[in-house]
Amino acid sequence: MKSMVNHNITLTMTQQKAAARVLAAAFAQDVFMAYLFPDAVTRKNNLVKLFQPVIRCSLLYGSVQLASNNNGVLAWMPGARLPLNLSQLFRSGLIWAPLTIGLSAFKRLQNHDGFCEHVLLSKAPQGFAYLWLVGVHPEAKGQGLGKRMIQTALSDMHSHGYDTCLLRTDNEKNVPLYQHLGFELIYTGTAPKSGLQYWLLSQTTAPAD
User: Fold this and answer.
1) In this structure, how many other beta carbons lie within 10 angstroms of the beta carbon of residue 51?
2) Contact at 8 Å (CB) between 11 and 59?
3) pLDDT, tens digit, for every residue of 91-143?
4) Which residues are bridge partners to 169 per DSSP?
5) Is residue 196 part of a domain?
6) Is residue 6 in some structural domain?
7) In CATH, what number is assigned to the domain containing residue 134?
8) What is the total count of domains within the chain?
9) How far apart (Å, rounded) are the C-alpha atoms in residues 145 and 26?
10) Residues contacting residue 157 through CB under 8 Å, at least 6 positions apart
11) Which of 124, 130, 135, 190 holds its CA 20 to 30 A away from the CA of 115?
């Protein structure tokens, strides 16, 4: 039976804020994040506000991984937790997103994320794990940090009974990087309200022979 309980590290509020800042730096130039927050001057601050409850949600219901030097963050969730219900949104603080990031940004988030999540769930196998976020601080790029975190996450997923890992990226440049790590592209499309393309990828969590 697949585990549905939290099985990751505990992070203090200070560590959660630090992790959110790492993700904000990692995603500052991301296509989707630029769509959410068009103003490049305020984008990082808004991303921190967005990522803090995402990290809390993953701590509560999934798993969060910090690189040893705190320059990388990975979060994943059991697929059965998606879509998040009202209780999960409230406990994590995501329910306050319209106030913290602004109503217009929240609507853009819903327009794109909500559509993509619906498509992902329609194509997902039962009992999958969702790699929600993986980000490496720009100063630590090229050191294999992301690869090591993903490999550790896949092993963690497998040990808790999840046979398949799914992820979504909104950056075409990321697709070959994930494919190099063993992920298979299963679908690509364009979200009608955002006009942004997205890519869904999948990989077995079983270790290679």
Assistant:
1) 24
2) yes
3) 999 999 999 999 999 999 999 999 999 999 999 999 999 999 999 999 999 88
4) 199
5) yes
6) no
7) 3.40.630.30
8) 1
9) 12
10) 76, 129, 165, 205
11) 135
